[in-house]
Amino acid sequence: MNINTVSTQLLYTTFPIWAERDNGQFSSGTGFIYNHPVDIEKNSYIPLLMTNYHVIKDAKKIFTEFVRGEDGKPLIGNKIRIELNAKLFQENHDLTNDLAAHPIAPIVNSLTKANYNVFYRSIDTKLIPTDEVINKLSAIEEILFIGYPSGLYDQKNSYPIVRKGITATPIWNNFDGEQKFLIDAGVYPGSSGSPVFIYNQGSYGTEEGITIGTRLIFLGILSESILSTKENKPDYFLGLGSVINSKCFSGFVTSIVKKFQ
Fold it and tell me: What is the domain extent for residue 176?
């Protein structure tokens, strides 16, 4: 395994999330770590575990799972499950845009002190596209997202599931006036909270033609799979997902991170 490739490192940005309700039932979702800059010159960041609010809403207990690391590399299959602070997670939310954040540094520091080094990779502001970049994107772009559909993942090796699709509505257009766009992909429950990217290896198309190189752009966070809701007919998945765009995501993080500084 080459841990230095972009695609391999993307696998270590996401985390499974399990939420236990008062009735003892569990639901699952996806989270990922986002580094919010505090002092870029000093390389100072606040790492946050991000997901959708509906994933952890009303949960009495919330769990996630870290991969252990050693010498800057992951120990494949060696993982540790931890309980998060449910109240803290639920307090730091945006109900309107279905976002929630949990500071992760205290947990990582506690694990390190207990000789449990963990390995993960994070998303940061460098991957968030500017308005200029977004406006130059095509109406139809290939996308990928990473997560745990229906709670499924490679438990032995601790790898999430990677899925591909295309934008179903333009990224630069607010769908129905909301800060989101739609994707055409295999979106199922459990994928909520998945980071969505444009990731091109080797070359990609632009308005100028074919550009040689690799492109990685964080587009936002997957919030729901869209169902058919016709009257007197059973609901079924349309193969569409709704993505909260990275601009909305970034605005929420900026507003909430002041609590943790």
Answer: 6-260
